[in-house]
Amino acid sequence: MKQKSIELLNKAVADELAAVHQYMYFHFHCDDQGFDLLANLFKRTAIEEMLHIEKIAERILFLKGEVNLTASEEVKKIHDVKEMLDLATKMEEASAHDYNVWAVECSQNADSVSKSLFESLVIDEERHFNQYDDEIENLKRFGDNYLALQSMERSKNIAAGVPIG
To answer: What is the pTM of this model?
Structure first.
């Protein structure tokens, strides 16, 4: 029971760590392009994913396991906003799916606490998916004007002396 849960929890740590790295990469590039709304969304999501890692690590340690802090994937060097959002939705959808499956596995191994942890993570991952999906819809609806408005808002704030970031 315990070993299987530790294995699944470490897979989750690896995926969450990959997400943190990817979302921070997107944050940096959106910020550089002046897309403050999207930059902040990626940054906030990365921070939430870090909090997930903390919760998962605490559970692994409680089960007397070792926390493996190796990302499951390398950062993808994407600079196009639509492609960033497409990847983000795929990542969140995959995480929600995996966590649902792993919750069932933990339940079958009589580990209700890890099951509950995975179920709570599904809620966050589905919310993240929805946020990124909404941004894709905004891009479809408003096109490049959506991104231009974000850049114009930043310029307006800079001119007004509002601190950025």
So the answer is: 0.90
